[in-house]
Design brief:
Shape: globular
Distance between the termini: 61 Å
Number of domains: 1
Number of strands: 0
CATH topology: Methane Monooxygenase Hydroxylase, Chain G, domain 1
Structural class: mainly alpha
Order of helices and strands: HHHHHHHHHHHHH
Number of helices: 13
CATH class: Mainly Alpha
Length: 272
């Protein structure tokens, strides 16, 4: 039954589709073959890019909140990032319905394009602290993309902002660790492990840092699941073939499983 109070005339006012720009959004899928699974492949990656856009916004806001000592705000943002990662993980379940036979019908149409070249994914990794200057190369042809990546490299990573907050609370940490943006993946530092050991051994005294630590562990937990789901999906669909962008495919992705974003938060658990 229709609702007599529902607005039905949108000739002079904004509609749902207008607000969301659905005409542009839903016309942005352009398969290059007649293969029915290519639309699935395109939508999977486009929606992932939309979620990553939101993730970058939340990570930016969370870092600014931590830098201003507004931790309660940052907790909400970091929790949202974890929920976004949960959505990205669930998306692999849909893509895994595509069989090797399905994918081979359009894979050659991808050329050398690959998710390895995703600018937003690289920005997410840089924001989380997995920074590698060699990863600028796939974007060297794009001045704007390179500018965004270098701008990110000029900021403290999320983990650095957390450690800078701890330093402001009186914890003795290396000045270089919290004073200069990192340009390489974070490595285990004894002073940081000692910090988290003290926090976890006396949570009531250090509750804010304790809660912040668990938010980071939660985030990396989901991020690790995303990487694992990526590996298993790729292996299920193409086996051990090289990726379309020239990477080692499954072999390369398995190496990425060993990368730790916040190593001390994981290693300290052995000592507790």
């Amino acid at each position: 039954m229709s609702d007599p109070g529902a607005e039905t005339d949108f000739s002079r006012q904004m509609s749902y589709g207008d607000y969301l720009g659905l005409d542009r959004l839903l016309s942005a899928q352009h398969p290059l073959s007649e293969a029915p699974d290519e639309l699935l492949f395109i939508i999977q990656h486009q929606t992932s890019e939309l979620w990553m856009k939101l993730m970058l916004s939340e990570l930016d806001a969370a870092r600014r909140a931590i830098a201003a000592d507004r931790l309660s705000e940052a907790f909400k943002m970091l929790a949202r990032v974890s929920r976004i990662m949960e959505q990205l993980n669930a998306a692999w379940d849909v893509l895994r319905t595509m069989t090797p036979s399905d994918y081979t019908t359009f894979r050659d149409r991808l050329g050398r394009s690959s998710g390895f070249q995703s600018l937003q994914y690289r920005l997410v990794e840089f924001a989380l602290g997995n920074r590698n200057l060699a990863m600028l190369k796939p974007h060297a042809h794009d001045i704007d993309a390179t500018g965004r990546l270098r701008e990110e490299l000029g900021r403290l990573s999320l983990y650095q902002e957390v450690l800078a907050y701890a330093a402001r609370q009186g914890w003795d940490l290396p000045a270089a660790l919290v004073g200069e943006p990192s340009v390489a993946p974070h490595q285990d530092i004894p002073e940081v492990t000692a910090l988290w050991g003290a926090v976890y051994r006396d949570t009531s005294t250090h509750w804010t840092l304790y809660e912040l630590a668990e938010k980071l562990v939660d985030l990396e937990d989901y991020f690790r699941r995303w990487r694992f789901n990526h590996v298993t999906t790729v292996e299920r669909v193409i086996g051990f073939k090289r990726g379309t962008g020239g990477t080692g495919g499954v072999d390369y992705l398995k190496k990425m499983l060993a990368v730790e974003l916040f190593p001390e938060l994981w290693h300290v658990r052995t000592d507790l």
